[in-house]
Each structure stands twice: as structure tokens, then as C-alpha cells.
Amino acid sequence: MDDLLYQIALTQAPLVGSVTARNLVSYCGSAREVFQANKKELLKIPGIGERTVQAILQRDYFKAAEDEILFIEKHGIEPLFYLDKKYPERLRHFPDSPVMLYCKGNIDLNAPRTIGIVGTRQPTVHGIGICEELVESLADYKVVIVSGLALGIDAVAHRKSLQTGQPTLGVLGHGLAQIYPYRHKQLAAQMIEQGGGILSELGHRAGPEREHFPMRNRIIAGLSDAIIVVETALQGGSVITVNFANEYNKDVFAVPGRLKDKFSQGCNHLIKTHKAALIENASDIAYTMRWTESGAKKGFQQELFVELSEPEKTVVALLGRQEAMSIDQLTFEMRVTNSEMATLLLELEFKGMVAALPGKRYVLA
Predict the structure, then answer these.
(1) How far apart are CA 336 and CA 70, in angstroms?
(2) Domain residue spans in the chain?
């Protein structure tokens, strides 16, 4: 519990964001050791200046960390530090990913397949129907649906997931002491009861401030194997999620709409500018993500002399340095999309070069 206090305190320290916190822990060894270091030692760390050191040494934010621990103990919330085993692997490798996450519910944050669904807060009847059809069809692929518990498309995706028996995760732009909007309090409770959950990087007292929602959007993008956009304006919040997803080399799909419809303009623009692929149904997603080929990979022996493409050679080299790597680690290292990595790995399995392990991990054959 002492370690948890220091970990939470690190996230409460002024002028210490995710990147700085990781830098501090990397050089000091642990969150506890960050606070045991003196001023001279802290100033030796690259990127850590006088103001940041002064903020760390003040320690007046430890009371907030103690309050956070009391809250999570009382409400059955699981804290996840970025070095913990249960921390989402899909997020772990991004330098701006949250140092600490707070999760309520029994959802598997490292589920084999995750899809983020985002869109306008004012969907049309057509948009609602499309979203429900997509979620219902995705149930065949045992997918965890990730969204932001907001009004509109988010809520449609969460509710349809509950109806189809799929676990669904709501990523919040505020602390877990409240649900915003309030009308979704019962929805959040049902998500938790049915094997899903809610998640936030913010302390429980944090409110739904404007700047918190882009932060929330990057988590949705990072947690998802792919993002689906169902209706959005040209400047909608969904576009922020797409920008993060593209930056993280995630696959992005958008549902096209009529040219003059306000909430189709964003999707059409994403497709037009090649920031998203056009989809009509869940089969399009499964094909791109290579989900339909997951059973066709066995019984191949490694050939003596195998011709490999340059990307395939890089994958083999990466796997040669470690005992096993997850597809998320490989995707991050290779700077490719999840679907592109799935294709590479499938080709390497056909060639007998790599073998798949449980949990989407891979080793050299």
C-alpha cells in the first residue's frame, strides 16, 4: 500500500504529467525512490527543471493521494500503475499514456479483441440503427466495445453491447466519484454488473472539465485495436479520437453518409482524406483485422531457406531479442497498424517462422 501511495502521489504532483512521471521513474527506479531522491539527484535527470523539482519536494499533495486510496478502497476500485502486470498492454508502450488508471468492474483490459466506437452526441435515426447493427454483428467475434459513456453514439454502443451480452468499457473524462452525464449512472451500473466496467486516469474528485475529454479520447484510441466512427461533424470530438488513433497506428473505420448531412460530413471527410477506411458492416472490419483467418495457421513446418520481406525480417529480429512479444508491442515497435501487423504475423506463421501463444503473444518457431 505504501508503493500505491507514492504512485498516486506522483500523478498528483504539480507540473508532473505522464511523460515526466515515466522519465522520473525510469531514472529513479520506482515512484517511491522518486520521492526519496534529493534536489541535486532530481536535477540530474534530463528534462527535469528547477520548478518541477520544487513541486515534487513540496509534498503537500500527499493528502490528496491518501484521500484517493480511501476512496478506491471504499468503492472497490482497482488502481493500475503503468508498470503493473494488469495494466493494459495496448496502452503501456505509448509515452503519453496514463501513469495511473482507476478501473471499476471485472472487465479484461487485455481482452484479445477491442473495438472503440465513437460518434456524435446527436445521432440521426439512421446513425443509431447503423451503430446497433455493427455492435450486434461484432458480438460474433467476441469483441470488447470501448466508448466514452457520452450522450449519443457512445450510449447507443454501450446499450447495444449490454443487449447482445458483450462486455463494454466506458472511458470517462472525470473521476469515478460521479457519472457524467448523470442520466447514464444506471447505464454505468449495468455495464459493471454485466462484466464490463468504467475507467479513468483522473482522481475521483476531478470533474468533467473541457480539457479532460481529449485526454479521455486518447485512452479510447490507445485501448482499441481499431476505431469506428458513426456520424460526426467536421470538428466533432470523434475527430480528436481519430487523430490519436492515427498517431498510434491504429486502424480507423468510418461509416459514410449523404453528402449534405451535417453529421455525415466528418465521416466522409475522414474517408476522403484517407484517415479512415470505409465500412458497411462488421465483416469489413473482420476482414481488415484478419479475424476470419485466425483458425488457418497451423501445421506448417519451417523451411530451410525462407525468403522474407524487409518488414518480416524486422519482426523476426524483434522476436529474436525477447522470449515472447505481444502483437501490441510489435505494432508499436514496427510503427504499423494492427491489421498490417496481423498480416505480417500470418505470413510468418505460414512460413513457419513464428508461433502464436495465448493472449496474442508471439515467439520464433
Answers:
(1) 42
(2) 2-75, 105-289, 294-364
Class of domain 105-289: alpha beta
**What's the CATH code, domain 294-364?**
1.10.10.10
Looking at beta carbons, which pairs linking 276-282 to residues 24 or more positions away fall under 8 Å?
276/229, 276/242, 276/252, 277/251, 277/252, 277/253, 278/253, 278/254, 279/228, 279/253, 279/254, 279/255, 280/255, 281/133, 281/134, 281/137, 282/134, 282/137, 282/138, 282/140, 282/141
pTM score: 0.85
Which mean pLDDT values do the consecutive 10-residue runs of the chain (365 residues) have? 91 94 95 96 94 93 96 98 95 93 97 96 95 96 97 98 97 98 98 98 96 96 96 92 94 92 93 95 91 48 67 90 83 87 90 82 87
Judged on CB neighbours under 10 Å (0-12, 13-18, 19+), 266 is buried
CATH 1.10.150.20 assigned to domain 2-75? The reply is yes
